[in-house]
Amino acid sequence: KKLMLMLAMILGIVAMAGCQPEEQPVDDPTTEQPEEKPEEKPEEKPEDKPAIQSFEVSVDGVTKTTMTYTITPALADKEYIAIVKTAESLTGLEDEAIVEAVFADIKAAGAATGLTFAEKMTSLVSKGASEGTVEGLAVDTEYALVVFGVDPANDWAFTTFPTIEDFKTETVELNSCTFDVATETTASSAVISVTPSDNNITWHLCIMSKEMYETYTSETGEYQWSKEDFYQAYVQSEIQQYLDYGFTEEEIFEGLFLTGAQVLEATGLSASTEYTYLVAGFEREADMFFMATEVSDGTFATTEAEKTGLTFDISVTDVEALRASILITPSDIEER
Fold first, then answer.
1. How far apart are alpha carbons 87 and 146 in whole angstroms?
2. pLDDT at residue 126 tops 80
3. pLDDT at 323 over 70
4. Average pLDDT taken over every residue of the chain
5. Minimal CA–CA distance to 258: which of 197, 175, 194?
6. What would you report as the CA-atom Rg of the chain, rounded to the nearest whole angstrom?
7. Which of 10, 43, 138, 251 shows the greatest Cβ crowding within 10 Å of its Cβ?
8. Do the beta carbons of residue 120 and residue 106 sit within 8 Å?
């Protein structure tokens, strides 16, 4: 029995020894450990990012009434607009407000010639590098050349904020000549007497409805042009119109610009309507005319249309479902 018991104990000890876990190695801090390599991540390929449109804008030359420029866009296949605004008209405006002001000018220019906004934009838009000359600027005036991208496929929405290059036209020593203006009006005409203080000065007179004038020059209006900017642009536009009709520069100069005291008549005016006149002395530089005196301005009003005893006899005959014959006979066939 003792032998069997000892044998059982020996077998049990052996069995327990066989169940002991294997001895795990213990890190020896004095032993140099192998350097762990960071997990390698797959190489990330950079995504193709769209190129951003930007502009290099330079003003290459300025005279009393003109400016030459060069525009180089970063993306040659994208459309953009370039327009000149007076620096004063942009004062205090943020980028989006500047764009809105430019669009307002383009809409007005299009409406004046019977074009829609889209049609006018199409005539002004550019692609790629461009250079040109802006004419009809006022002397001694600060301007800004405004350039920004547009998208014709998205109702001409702007695609970049404006890039602006400032410049100033050359100064002119103004003549001290002043103008005395007197008017006599009827319902459809006005006789205007202009007497300059200097009979040697060459001068120009323009007339338009007061409503039209204030549309461009009112401080609370849409455009807020100065009197001088408006008049300079008006004269240059008038000259260009006659050039388009085939008149020579000399013919235009002799027809539009006067010297000494003159009595002029404006016809075809509307009854009971206020009109504004502007008169100033001008000088000529090459094919450009610029103001050489202060602008004199004023207003006058036409009289009411006279009522006449004209009557009408109206007869309607041959009346059918979709037609009728109408005869109108005035009491005086000579009167309009």
1. 10
2. yes
3. yes
4. 84
5. 194
6. 41
7. 138
8. yes
Whose structure tokens read 């301005």?
A: 297
Per the CB < 8 A criterion, the answer to whether 298 and 182 are in contact is no
Pairwise pLDDT comparison (252 vs 299), residue with the higher score? 299
CB 57 within 8 A of CB 71: yes
Bridge partners (DSSP) listed for residue 208: 276
Between CA 179 and CA 197 the distance in angstroms is 6
pLDDT band of residue 130 (cuts 50, 70, 90) is: very high
**Side chain identity at residue 256, one-letter code:** L
Vertex 133 angle, CA 91 and 69, to 5°: 65
Say how far apart CA 76 and CA 291 lie, in whole Å. Answer: 39
More confident residue, 178 or 240: 178
Element holding 112 (H helix, E strand): helix 95-112
311 or 84, greater pLDDT: 84
Q: Are 324 and 316 in contact (CB under 8 A)?
A: yes
CB-hemisphere CA count at 13 Å for 293? 22
Task: Determine contact, residues 157/150, Cβ cutoff 8 Å.
Answer: yes
Phi, psi of 57 (to 5 degrees): -120, 130
Where do we find the tokens 């094919």?
287
Q: Classify residue 120 by its DSSP letter.
A: H
CA distance 26 to 52: 61
